[in-house]
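Regression test attached.
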Amino acid sequence: GIQVEQSPPDLILQEGANSTLRCNFSDSVNNLQWFHQNPWGQLINLFYIPSGTKQNGRLSATTVATERYSLLYISSSQTTDSGVYFCAVGFWGGSEKLVFGKGMKLTVNP
Amino acid sequence: DAGVTQSPTHLIKTRGQHVTLRCSPISGHKSVSWYQQVLGQGPQFIFQYYEKEERGRGNFPDRFSARQFPNYSSELNVNALLLGDSALYLCASSLRGPEDTEAFFGQGTRLTVV
């Protein structure tokens, strides 16, 4: 089945720093989403980005579908950015599901 | 607009018991998917339903079952609970299926089996 790898697995930053999270996937996809899991467990949608570039405030994302990777940029990080970030992909003929990476734990210190 | 709602939010059950988890999708969404997330891992796919038909099933034992109702809400049932079933159960709602349309998740049901 399709493999989704996220890097780095963990990241510790000082408030105000920038970061880049990477998601590599092993096959063509029709859906790619980035989520932030809050301390209570809910997955918060950040981006739906099967291809191209999107920006939302301090966050932006780029997916290069032909090269099978996506990047999530966080600029001027804040302590509220702390948590676990997941990349998930969907594709036809794959049991109609999202396949998640293992996640990246971000800690932003004041 | 209401998001995806799941009930209950927390649940404690004893080994061998049965549990039913419920999910109401976003209005207009016809697909509901279920995922299990154990501590420290990413969510794992259990089922997807679209228009009341099962479209996908993950690698879970037959103790796990689900259904979707005419109003597109869904139930996940787990029989003969094991300690290893303790996890966060997440429901996702999407217009068609998460394979090609954006999925939105509920707040989850945290199940503890003792």
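Expected vs. actual: identical. Chain B touches chain A at residues 33, 35, 37, 41-45, 48, 50, 55-58, 88, 90, 92, 97-108, 110 (CB under 8 Å).
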